[in-house]
């Protein structure tokens, strides 16, 4: 017997939804990997960057788990929670925040997370005619 969440995972995924959750998963895993690198590499900013690395590891890990579970089950709270990615990376870009001097990774993370969230909006907020 399947639970309700399993049914949502088993139903046929559209290509659009598959691209959306994969883009969000890549964002999460890249954020996690980025955090590991920042936490491990020695730097003149020492403990400060290690703290940012640890926070990025947690954010990437939680985002990846949310994407692979609740987001793929189309739970709205997961959709809203994952909006943290573009807001976080945009704040880092606009505020010229560390880590790193080039901000290419921030632009990539912003683009990937927005792609994932915007492509999937119809899965979380279907139009009324979709239910008829």
Put simply, the count of helices is: 7
> What are the secondary-structure elements, in order, as H or E?
HHHHHHH
Q: How many beta-strand elements? A: 0
Share of helical residues: over 70%
* Count of domain modules: 1
> Uncertain regions: pLDDT < 50 for 5+ in a row?
none
* Largest beta-sheet details: none
Q: Write down the overall geometry.
A: elongated
Strand content: under 5%
State Rg: 17 Å
Distance between the termini: 28 Å
Task: Please state the average pLDDT score.
Answer: 87
The chain-level structural class is: mainly alpha
Provide structural commentary:
The protein has 132 residues and is an all-alpha fold. It has one domain. It has seven helices and no strands. Helix 2 packs antiparallel against helix 3, helix 2 packs antiparallel against helix 6 and helix 5 runs antiparallel to helix 6. The model has no long low-confidence stretch (mean pLDDT 87).
Q: What is the topology?
A:
Elements: H1 4-10, H2 15-40, H3 46-71, H4 76-81, H5 84-94, H6 104-119, H7 121-124
Summarize the structure.
The protein is mainly α. It has helices at 4-10, 15-40, 46-71, 76-81, 84-94, 104-119, 121-124.
Which characteristics define this entry?
elongated, about 130 residues, mainly alpha, about 0% strand
